[in-house]
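2024-03-11 09:14:02 DEBUG pipeline.ingest accepted 1 chain
2024-03-11 09:14:02 DEBUG pipeline.ingest length=359
2024-03-11 09:14:03 DEBUG pipeline.predict start
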Amino acid sequence: MHGLVIAILDGMPDPVLLVNSRRSVIAANRAARELSVGPMIGNDFAVTLRHPAGLEAVDAVLRGATAREAEVFLPVPGAATYRLFAAAIAGDGVRGADEPAAIVTLHDLTAIRMAERMRADFIANASHELRSPLAALIGFIETLKGPAKDDTEARGRFLDIMHTEAARMARLIDDLLSLSRVEVEERIPPRDAVDLGKVARGAMDLLSVRAKETGASLELDCPADVPPVLGDADQLAQVFRNLIENAIRYGRAGGRIAVTLRAVDRIPDRGVPGVAACAPDEGDGIPHDALPRLTERFYRVDKARAKALGSTGLGLAIVKHIIGRHRGRLAIESQLGKGSRFTVYVPVATPGAANGRTS
């Protein structure tokens, strides 16, 4: 019977341990054994779990409590947070009919706690980003109502600044809403066949005026043999807008932004055919150690410059999540003094994979 119990416990994904009245581990399933860097059976439970709250919960059960639970953190073999639940048991299947013991289960909360921290950080960052322009608006409004009430020159200058700050808030709110929508839909892959060349041309047309303001030239190289991709046309348009806008924002004045589309036999790390869309710039480039953080929310290499240029710090995070939904890949290359290349890979719409619509 004991062997059958262990076999059943081995099939459970959560770590499970049986502890006798002396707090020695007398049985452990496979998941529990994988948590320990040394032998568990026969050792005190404290050897496996060096956490005061967890040990207190187990001791309380061994002293007669029916059940206890606690949240515990285990630094090895991999930092993780668990909900420990200890319950009293007794019976022939453990150590004898008269000896009380406890069953201890550990449920992994690491992903949940990470999501909570990310959400808290996101709210804190968003609040900070909104507070700055809002404070500026309030300050200028108070000035216009008071000392500068009859100062025509100051009123015009302040209203221009207020318009800039209000526009910055509007962009930030739009990007926050976009990111929220993308995250909600990320688990659901798109089903439409999309002409990526058409989407890219539409995005470039929308940004042509912005490019002219900086003297930049926009060019699109899209061969006729580029196949449709499996995607969401609106979201892919947002990807192109964000990447091209970044190239305009951080490229040199009067520079050339040549967007290229190419069919590829295999998407890197995916092994499926796709289309690679590259949006380069001729800017200052990005330090190598900053590249892994570019898709983090609100991350900016040069915060002062980014804010001055109107960046919300969310554009590449949105791109990452959209490409993630499309089961594609985002690649970033940069060289200081020579500019950067942002390439997105999107799987092609193979026959039968799309629902028949072409956008």
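2024-03-11 09:14:41 DEBUG pipeline.report DSSP finds ten helices and twelve strands in the chain.
2024-03-11 09:14:41 DEBUG pipeline.predict end
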